[in-house]
Design brief:
The chain has a five-stranded antiparallel sheet with strand order 4-3-7-6-5, with helices on both faces. 27% of the residues are buried. The protein has eight helices and seven strands. The protein is globular. The chain is 47% helix and 20% strand. β3 and β4 form a beta hairpin.
């Protein structure tokens, strides 16, 4: 959860005067580290934090722990396997193992990446209710006739994903693309990331999706089990 705080609240928490905090916030805002909400005039973390988070995540064990499971998943499904994390509504890619099968042109690869980004964003279902509310308040673009743009319907889907532990998406970004993802949990029980596969719809048929879901859930569970060991015990 990302807090939204005003100058007075921050000054009180940091035990600094409000003028100092205001000047600091303006500097952070200029570099994209915080953004100010237009209505409340309060501040929240900005997009530049994602870049910093990527640097930190690259130093952590998640990509290293996940690599062999990504490779195994790609080998078993013969599709591209992805590892990504979610910061607010932004998806940060950590690793990928390409499919041994022909994927197509660069535009096709770009479509698959955006499909996976949409898929990963739906794991906001594990975050606090106010984070979900903000996610649902963002403008929703209809890419195909299958794209869910109704906030009520999307909230229902997010609840379903939270209960199932995985998400499968077909044709919501492109009619020709399909993706399946499962949540990865940290040692403290929070969602750390997600592992997914993607490919063209003609290969990822309904029967294939049904067969691949247990493989993806198993890989996510194995990575989660590794991350369940507290850092001081690793």
């Amino acid at each position: 959860m990302t807090p939204v705080l005003g100058v007075s609240e921050l000054a009180s928490r940091l035990d600094l005067n409000k003028a100092t905090v205001f000047n600091m916030l303006k500097t952070f805002e200029a570099h994209g580290l915080v953004v100010q909400e237009p209505k409340s005039k309060k501040y929240m973390l900005g997009p530049a934090i994602i870049e910093l988070a990527g640097t930190k995540l690259a130093q952590d064990d998640l990509p290293q722990v996940s690599r062999r499971y990504l490779a195994q998943l790609s080998s078993e499904t013969r599709e591209t396997a992805h590892l990504a994390t979610l910061y607010e509504s932004e998806v940060l890619y950590l690793d990928k193992v390409d499919s041994p099968q022909p994927v197509g042109s660069q535009p096709a690869l770009a479509v698959e990446s955006r499909c996976i980004a949409r898929l990963m964003a739906k794991f906001s279902s594990y975050q606090a209710d106010d984070v979900i509310d903000r996610f649902l308040q963002t403008p929703l673009t209809r890419y195909t006739t299958a794209t869910i743009v109704d906030p009520v319907a999307l909230r229902a889907e997010l609840i379903q994903i939270r209960g199932a532990g995985f998400c499968a998406e077909r044709g919501q970004y492109s009619p020709d693309t399909c993706g399946i993802a499962a949540a990865i949990f940290r040692f403290d029980g929070d969602v750390s990331a997600a592992i997914a596969i993607s490919g063209p719809s003609h290969r990822l048929t309904e029967d294939q999706v049904s067969a691949f879901v247990p493989l993806i859930v198993r890989a996510a569970g194995a990575i989660s089990a590794s991350l369940a060991i507290k850092p001081e015990l690793m």
